[in-house]
């Protein structure tokens, strides 16, 4: 046998050997979620009020879309500023802006729903967690086109005809706030607040808010409104106590 044949046979024998056992895949460690000691858990509550001359809501013209106009027996008013009798301000996104750094919380399981009803987004302000399911419905007999315009998350633009399946999306990064429009109906607006923790809420006409199950510490609390912007306060929350934080927009 020639030398070249011997070399070829050696290579063939080596190639027919037992396959190498693949290295075991490294298992990911389960995330460690932050837990508050019930013995020291505290809360934070407050109210957001509007002071000043009453804001007269503007009428929304739906004449360009007769199908939308037919859905309403009464004039439709813009919902940018909605205040109760005692000045409680609705649609304010109140959240912990700082003081929770380095803490991870269990993911939210339930979906947050945004409906398109009466050719309006309902609700006006939406709040959800990063990774939480965001469901968009169309309850109208007309087509809509939902178009969130984030800076930190992925931009998307989706048409939703009548009786079409619900849309489901997720936002990967925290962002306050994401404006949303309908490309078909210019008057439709909503705003989305996305956070990586559970300490946030959207006020109703009472303007009240409350966060429970907080650990003692110093926090920056923020209140955001689409017409008045954002204002913040630094609050110290002590063990087993209920701290208060009130905001006034003028």
What is the gist of this entry?
7% of the residues lie in helices and 37% in strands.
Description:
By secondary structure, the chain is mainly beta. It has helices spanning 3-15, 66-69; strands spanning 42-50, 93-98, 112-116, 121-122, 125-129, 134-138, 144-148, 158-160, 167-169, 175-182, 189-195, 200-202, 208-214, 217-225, 229-237, 242-244, 247-249. Strands 5-11-10-7-8 form a five-stranded mixed β-sheet, with no helix packed on it. Strands 1, 13, 16 and 17 form a four-stranded mixed β-sheet that branches. Strand 14 (217-225) and strand 15 form a beta hairpin. The longest helix is centred in the first third of the chain and has 13 residues, at 3-15. The radius of gyration is 27 Å and the shape is flat. The N and C termini lie far apart (99 Å). Residues 11-15 have low confidence and may be disordered.
Helix and strand run = HEHEEEEEEEEEEEEEEEE
Main pleated sheet: 5 strands, mixed
Give the low-confidence spans: 11-15
Give average pLDDT, whole number: 91
